[in-house]
Amino acid sequence: MIKIAIAEDEKKEAEKLESYIRRYGAEHGENYNVSVFTNGIDFVSSAEPFHIVFLDIDMPLMGGLDAAKKLREADKSACIIFVTNLAQYAVKGYEVDAMDFVVKPIDYPSFESKFKKALYISQSAHTYSIILPLKAGFRKLAVEDIVYVEVQGHILTFHLKDEIVSQRMPLSRAKEMLGEDFVQCNKCYLVNLAYVTGVTADTVTVGSNKLELSRLKKRELLDSLAAFLGKRG
Predict the structure, then answer these.
(1) pLDDT digits (tens, 9 = 90+) for 81-118
(2) What pTM does this model have?
(3) Which part of the chain is the HTH LytTR-type domain (predicted)?
(4) Fewer CB in 10 Å around end: N or C, the chain?
(5) Partner residues linked to 137 by β-bridges
(6) Domain extent at residue 88
(7) Any bridge partners for residue 33, and if so which?
(8) Largest alpha-carbon pair distance within the chain?
């Protein structure tokens, strides 16, 4: 389901935006998950991933532009639509790769054209991601970029194609988030089957890495790999 955030301190404008989203959904037979925030700090602190974000540029505590910069540190793909009283302020949106802006008071035709474009971009660019909570927000990881996960006590290290990210998290939670295409090859590693290129009696090659394959996990991995390859045809 498409997740949408509205960060707007004016209650009337926030309610109007939410009603427009509900109206569009009713007209097109769709349901959207909508969350409303009254300032930028609450939005950033929520650490939730959203496909589309409506951000009021002028808000107390943290304005929309600063909130967008924080968002971009963790999520490069969310569609940002700025909400503003003056169109010239929206030019700053290019600094954070905002998709567009709407000017208050917002009318439905203006909203509809921007929202339709945002939906198209979100659905076209959709990739399955997981969210890692951080002290100052969150980090979004595309699952397809995770090669394997290394387990060291309560610390999980996510080995991606081009970087490494560590996070305190139970292994059971990571397995739940990552799904059936990630399988343990031993008690220390959870591998992405999409990157498995070879299996021997006691090792599994994942990308450019050779990891230990335990005897107890070998059958499970081979069965899961066969099912995975069959699914991909």
Answers:
(1) 999 887 666 666 667 888 889 999 999 999 999 999 99
(2) 0.60
(3) 130-196
(4) C
(5) 134
(6) 3-126
(7) 3
(8) 67
